[in-house]
Design goal:
Helix content is about 60%, strand content about 10%. The strands form 2 sheets. The protein has a 5-stranded mixed sheet with strand order 5-6-4-7-8, with helices on both faces. Helix 1 crosses helix 3, helix 2 crosses helix 3 and helix 4 runs antiparallel to helix 5. It is elongated.
Length: about 425
Amino acid sequence: MAFFLRPSEQGAHDRVPASVDPRAGTRVALGFPLAALAALGVWLATAPEQPEPSGWALLALPLVCAAYGLFPLAIGSRTYVTFEAPTVLLAGLVGGPMVGVLAGVAAGLGDVHAVWRRRSTYAGLAMVHGFAAGLAGVAWQRGSLSLAGAVAAAALAYVALSAVGLVLVLLDRSSWSVARLAAASLVNVVEVAAWGPLLALLAVGFRERPGLSALGVVSALGVVAFVAWTITSDRALEERERLARLTDPVTGLLSRLAFESALAREQQSVVRGERPAGLVLCDVDHFRVLNERLGHLGGDEALRLVAERVRAATRTADVIARWGGDELCLITPGTGTLAELEVVCERIRRSVAEAPAALPGQDGPITVSLGATLLTDWTAPEETFARADEALYVAKRTRDAVCVLPPREPASASGRPQLAEAS
């Protein structure tokens, strides 16, 4: 069993400094497999007697290693448990260095979603592990080592070679970390202590009953695959439910719950020193009349059209949500003045009003009223929302209008930043 961190695709590149060479890791990715193949070639050429590997070990264990890579067990957002490592060591113990190296190759092939450098590095290190375990297995089969000694030797080689491999990876990527090396080594020690006895039992089983033992290993793979599938299915269902809570089903915009969270986050950004953000409320004019004339399905279509036009008039950084009914709300980060906020609102108003009507039975344009204010570091999000709602109430008196109100003054103006007003 092996624990490792598998970074998510989204955001992985954001954590890489710009100065890091994208080719970093290539030397290690190529060096590990070449070193394992070179060691195997030397051993095949110089070993006086080479024990014949069991047919079951030669066939079953590499295949099982490859399959294990397809079913990692997620125990955290970025932490997975895999079972290739003990299987590679078992392959070496019962099949010798050649089968151990083959199992290592298969272990790298199973990680189909990784980039080639990672797959090659992981496969090469697993090949080295399998070769070392194979040497211990040959010594056990020849009587030079007891079974316990062979398992201990394979486990120690696994821990030591893993540490060497991590050191080389960190050096090749110029990201040396003693703490990371110590933590990884500790995890490896705990691993070998956990599955060492089982490894010894399986090695004896392959020696006495290779077919039955191979069937047991394949059965274990089936259990792991079922558990991994169950966990993946449950997490996929949870993710769908989470997205359903965060997305409005009619417009495809964010939901009210998601908008409230985004508003709180933006407030914290402003408190930390970012420019004030704009908060805009947008209400469809005469929506009740539209619903009566077009029906509820037509009203939903009108909401979708308004949402599309609002999205077209805003930036990708802006947050747009459906608050409820016919009301949309927006956060415009970095909108530092009332004049800038008024320009944003007017652009949205024109985008909706000037677009051609595209609904059956709707002759005139669909219009919206907008009320807005600025999110500042001295005003709570709910107070800012109430202020924007006041502005929306003013705009709805005339319809197809924009009203921007300044945020309420702080209780104590001393030491508070002043808003830049329109010039």
